[in-house]
Amino acid sequence: MSIHPGTHADDLPLHLRETLKRAERLEYWNIFWTITIVIVMGLVLGQSQTMKTAWIEDTLGLVPPIAFLVAARMERKGKRSRKFPFGFERVNGLGFFLAAVALAATGALLLWDSTMTLIKAEHASVGSIELFGRDIWLGWLMIGAQVYAMIPPMIIGRKELPLAEELADKLLHTDALMNKANWMTGAAGVAGIVGLGLGWWWADSVAAAIISFDILHDGMKAIRSSTAELVDGTPRALASAEISKEAEALEAALKQRYPGATIRLRETGRLIRAEVHGCLPDEPFDVNGHWPGKTERNWRLAQISFVPASATDAGDV
């Protein structure tokens, strides 16, 4: 027996639909500012390994917002059909996984490249360019580009975090954390360029390796969390691969309400689905009354399925 409310994006509470629209608008701005950063960084790239790595990371920054926008559109516009009877509520998790794989793979390749450059002791040089009739060290322009690349992501990341938490959206949350922590990449990039200016040939490759490791770390952490959803694992927290507090509270509440039953929870996008094995539901049944947290968060519990101890007693409603 299954009891579930609507699970389409349009079935979400009105305030959440508005939050989702705000998140989409913010991601369009995110894409715009990221493109400007990619252009500015590309214009002053030079031979610096640090700048090349930072430029690739900034370009990769387009992946999460694009994936979020595609997933949000499919979640909202996609209709159930014979081929997709459950709709597209898990497309967000798929986008999260693809973005995570792209991050991890690129981070690993860049880390290998910068490490080999360091081992081979390849010396990068930063020359000068003529600007307004004067010779200017290209490093100054690189530093300016790095500083500019730090500002928009920090602002956008801070605005994304509360929206991601309200929507329980891991893809948006990962994008927010990457943007918010972008100052680390900028600081490492500036240090590498200054090091080259001081004649420390190794500073460029070390800074590139630090940035590459940061990309790899973000990707691996996101992969652990995204794969848990794809293989029907217990719902994970937004910021880690640990079981979410809401899932733990729901499991405890269901165990208390149905003693002796086996409780299984899984996540489909931003929604949680529960299975109660070994008993039948209460009469009358109120699905919203099973949510242990704040009332405004009970939309997360999309379905409760009951599996009786005897298969002959089972039925679908």
Automatic annotation (TrEMBL):
GO terms for cellular component: membrane. It comes from the Bacteria. Keywords: Membrane, Transmembrane, Transmembrane helix, Transport. It is a multi-pass membrane protein. It is found in: Membrane. One of its GO terms (molecular function) is monoatomic cation transmembrane transporter activity. InterPro entries: Cation_efflux_TM (IPR058533), Cation_efflux_TMD_sf (IPR027469), CDF_Transporter (IPR050291). The chain crosses the membrane at residues 28-48, 54-72, 93-112, 132-151, 183-203. The keyword Aminoacyl-tRNA synthetase does not apply. This is Cobalt transporter.
